[in-house]
Amino acid sequence: MLGSNDPVIGKVMSICLLSGMRAGEAAGLLREDLVPKGNLGQFFQLQPNQLRLLKTDAAERLVPVHSELEQMLSTLPSVGPLFPGLKVNDITKRFAKIREALSIERQGLVFHSTRKWFITQCERTGVPEHFTASLVGHKSARSENGITYSIYSAGISDEQKRGIIDQIRLPS
Question: pTM here?
Answer without folding.
Answer: 0.89
